[in-house]
């Protein structure tokens, strides 16, 4: 599949070049297999990619989803109260956060887990200044519980936390190597963007993130790197500025 032409270069469309602090958004499905669940070997591979970026001196915060264990929206469709269903999904993110914390610590990376709702016997509460201090001290911080509120996705949590924590970019890990004009798994003629403006992504309805999250990023000029996390070394290459994935800027 060929790459689509980039949007013409302008000062507003330049991706960040020197990344000091990033937020990695990982879906729950990225930590399991086709049958769902949490697969230790998969979690360890993801932790290894984060460790390589951490070794570059980049501060890393991680937002994890919970879709490998439970999707609140699916329960809501079957009649469960939506707020209750979303709270169940938030609990699933906490399980994934603990798995990721353990994998990172076994890789020798100092780590903290912080949750948007109270879970004090297992992880810290999310306090913005405390999380920033952890990052400054070289700790990877895993953020669980979404925003702590129902009706918001972990995409929105990523956009909110990235803005609060003053990161240089959101790295959205997917199983596709960037943003395409159409779904490349269904359309063999789909072309990949090397770089894309927020406005064009909205006009094309490319669904980089859900609309609430995407609008929050656009309004706060938060760049988004969409890349394939499951090619070994891709995250490090993207942080180094190599031609990996798609920048939405």
How does this structure look, described?
With 249 residues, the chain is of the alpha/beta class. The protein has a single domain (18-248), classed as Acetylglutamate kinase-like (Carbamate kinase). The chain has helices at 40-54, 72-77, 82-106, 128-136, 154-165, 198-203, 211-219, 234-240; strands at 3-4, 21-26, 59-64, 111-115, 124-125, 140-144, 169-174, 179-180, 192-193, 195-196, 224-228, 246-248. The longest helix is centred in the middle third of the chain and has 25 residues, at 82-106. It is globular, with a radius of gyration of 17 Å. Mean pLDDT is 90; it is low at 6-11.
CATH architecture type: 3-Layer(aba) Sandwich
CATH homologous superfamily annotation: Acetylglutamate kinase-like
Strand arrangement, major sheet: 5-4-6-3-2-7-11-12-10
Helical fraction equals: 25-40%
Contiguous helical run count: 8
Low-confidence stretches: 6-11
Report the span from N to C terminus: 23 Å
CATH topology: Carbamate kinase
Residue share in β-strands: 15-25%
- Indicate the CATH class: Alpha Beta
- N-to-C SSE string, H for helix and E for strand: EEHEHHEEHEHEEEEHHEHE
Give the number of DSSP strands. 12
Largest sheet: 9 strands, mixed
Overall spatial form: globular
Rg from alpha-carbon coordinates? 17 Å
Mean pLDDT: 90
> What structural class do you assign from the helix and strand content?
alpha/beta
Number of domains: 1
């Amino acid at each position: 599949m060929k790459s689509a032409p980039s949007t013409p270069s302008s000062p507003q469309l330049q991706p960040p070049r020197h990344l000091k602090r990033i937020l990695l958004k990982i879906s729950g499905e990225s930590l399991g297999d086709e049958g769902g669940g949490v697969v230790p070997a998969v979690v360890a591979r993801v932790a290894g990619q984060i460790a390589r970026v951490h070794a570059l001196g980049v501060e890393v915060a991680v937002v994890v989803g919970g879709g490998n264990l439970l999707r609140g929206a699916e329960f809501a469709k079957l009649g469960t109260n939506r707020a209750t269903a979303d709270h169940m999904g938030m609990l699933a993110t906490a399980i994934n956060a603990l798995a990721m914390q353990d994998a990172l610590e076994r890789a020798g990376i100092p780590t903290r887990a912080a949750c948007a709702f109270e879970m004090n016997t297992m992880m810290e509460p999310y306090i913005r200044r405390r999380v920033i201090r952890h990052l400054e001290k070289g700790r990877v911080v895993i953020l669980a519980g979404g925003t702590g509120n129902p009706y918001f996705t972990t995409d929105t949590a990523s956009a909110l936390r990235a803005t609060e924590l003053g990161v240089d970019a959101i790295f959205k890990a997917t199983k596709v190597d960037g943003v395409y004009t159409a779904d490349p798994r269904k359309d063999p003629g789909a072309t990949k963007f090397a770089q894309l403006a927020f406005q064009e992504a909205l006009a094309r309805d490319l669904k980089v993130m859900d609309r609430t999250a995407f609008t929050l990023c656009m309004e706060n000029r938060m760049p988004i790197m969409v890349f394939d996390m499951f090619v070994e070394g891709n995250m490090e290459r993207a942080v180094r500025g190599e031609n990996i994935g798609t920048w939405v800027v």
